[in-house]
Amino acid sequence: MKKLNSILFLTMLSLLITACGGENNNGTDKATGGAMASNAAERVYVAPGEHDEFYAFISGGYSGNLTVYGLPSGRMLKEIPVFSQFPTSGYGYSEETKPMLMTSHGFVPWGDSHHPDISQTNGETDGRWVFINENNTPRIARISLETFETEEIIEIPHSAGNHSSSFVTENTEYVVAGTRFSVPYPQKDMPIEDMKGNFKGPLTFIAVGDDGRMKIDFQLDMPGFNYDLSHPGRGDSHGWFFFTTYNTEEAHTMQEVNASQNDKDFIAAVNWKKIQEYVRNGGGEQMDAEYAHNVYDHSTHTATTTMGNKVTRVDPRKVEGAVFFMPTPKSPHGCDVDPSGEYIVGNGKLSTDLTVHSFSKMLKAIENKDFTGEAYDIPILNFDSTLAGTVKEGGLGPLHTEFDGKGNAYTTFFISSEVVKWKLGTWEVLDRQPSYYSVGHLMIPGGNSRNPEGKYLVSMNKITKDRYLPTGPELEHSAQLYDISGEKMELLLDFPTHGEPHYAAGISAEKVKANSRKIYRLDENKHAFAATSEDQTKMVREGNNVHVYMTTVRSHFSPDNLEGIKVGDKVFFHVTNLEQDFDVPHGFAMIGANTSELLIMPGQTKTVIWEPKKEGVWPFYCTDFCSALHQEMQGYVRVSGKNSNLPLKWTLDGE
Ligand code: K7E
Ligand code: CUA
């Protein structure tokens, strides 16, 4: 058996190599020879000054951030810093935003972001927030779609590899975080080889308030499998959450072989409503935890970190009817629920077939106690009893599925490098289109909701190779836009993406753009070190700390001549941008600063610390070309010796 699996794996690997290699040589031919719709250019063309029809929020993978694209043009509109420091704006460098990156491991300036998901009301995307998970140091972030800024990051304690995340339920009651790596729960020093039966797989449910605030509600103490992906139920299955598992073998080494032994792993079906009720009635136990909760305040432009120290742990076996396992073939990756909530698709990545479970059949099987065994006392449902159907020979290496709201599903096949359209209910394959190359996730706007907007499909491809002008060994990943409004998918556009997009979330622009903030009022600036007019500017010495209250407006800083600073001082530049209209930021860069520049948004105050090491007269300047006299937007700081008695002095035009 072990040998057979290795052979299967090697065959797939060689197929992958042939697929990529083969198409690389003639990919261009293929793309122009038929796959490309004849008037594709027209259909993705957004005339100068016109807006796109959809926003696409594409995960930045190991960039740690989230990029915003317009569809159908494929134009990148913005990179939103989330889990990584971002010198472009000073995020994670300025004193105000550093707390956003605090964790129980200290300051972590990088993250690996995977799955964005848009908040929902009644099962439809509502354009309030985007959530995104961080895989490496488990966290979930919430980004406002009013300001397109990261407002909140919560760390997930006891989790490791926060991958089956950050999907939301249909009224944004919860956003979930399932551990990918099973770990000791709580963490402790123990031999790795004793993993089996001793590690756990905590699944965390984070409640989302009306204002968006996240709060860890409970954590399920699940068996030590790997929880890969998840999706919420909707419609009749609202109240349930589904998680794919792999490594149900609980292998601790050489997992590429040892975690592929079982013919079937599981989809865990979790009735979160039952557990919520149990917890509300005092169920579960308080467990020690250590996690950072970082919140950004829009009136002070400042983030604060609060450390949490308790979490409610629930043993799901103590809640009658709360958790079941549905056997699903071959190390399933994607776990997708169709718009009606009836079908749960498990994509066994070592299989050619897709397994579709039926929610109503699942309920029946539970009622009839139609079990074939137990895993750590959790009932395993009879495979044949929950099976709705199988999509046969879809391709090789299925990963993820999305839906168009018209009864069709679309699945990506990594190894055979294609997107395959099939019909829900009859399970027949309707169409297939090659992807260039090796597609991972795909996205249809509203695809994780009751009401997908099935006009376009974006495939996110892992290998770029010959699609663009060569740029050395490191290539950006590549996305492809298909028109799916007709019977056959039509490839319209290639566009490069940043980092490694895993999932993406899309929404029609109409739902978002009207709420986008345009005015940032100075009188709402509650920053402790703000100077909201030029006559409030000053310098204050507290021992070796010098606080500079500075303003910036087109086209000067106030003050622009600063004296009395000494080697060994720690200078805090608190810079307030007096502009109030959006899209008029000013920058602030100081020679020798060890962090980054600041890009100060209208109405805001931002702080950077500078520790001068050398005597002299040192310049600073605005980094953003803000006006015709931007180049004149500069000033000087005089730095004197350690023992100088020069008093602080700040002037603008001699005053
Ligand atoms: Cu890349 Cu969703 Cu993290 Cu599949 S995962 S591809
Ligand atoms: Cu302000 Cu350039």
Briefly say what this structure is.
The protein has 655 residues and is mostly beta strands. The chain contains 7 helices and 45 strands. It is globular, with a radius of gyration of 27 Å.
What layout of secondary structure does this protein have?
Blueprint: H1 2-35, H2 40-44, E1 54-59, E2 66-71, E3 75-80, E4 102-103, E5 106-107, E6 117-121, E7 124-134, E8 139-144, E9 150-155, E10 162-168, E11 174-179, E12 203-208, E13 214-220, E14 226-232, E15 240-246, H3 255-258, E16 264-271, H4 272-280, E17 285-297, E18 302-314, E19 323-329, E20 332-337, E21 343-348, E22 354-358, H5 359-367, E23 371-375, E24 378-381, H6 383-386, E25 387-391, E26 398-403, E27 408-413, E28 418-423, E29 429-434, E30 439-443, E31 456-461, E32 477-483, E33 490-497, E34 504-508, H7 510-513, E35 538-542, E36 545-553, E37 556-558, E38 561-566, E39 570-577, E40 586-590, E41 598-600, E42 605-610, E43 616-621, E44 634-640, E45 649-651
Parallel strand pairs: 13-18, 36-39, 38-44
Antiparallel strand pairs: 1-2, 1-34, 2-3, 4-5, 6-7, 7-8, 8-9, 9-17, 10-11, 11-12, 12-13, 14-15, 15-16, 16-19, 17-18, 20-21, 21-22, 22-25, 23-24, 26-27, 27-28, 28-29, 30-31, 31-32, 32-33, 35-36, 36-37, 38-45, 39-42, 40-41, 40-43, 43-44
Bound molecules: sulfanyl-(tricuprio-$l^{4}-sulfanyl)copper and dinuclear copper ion.
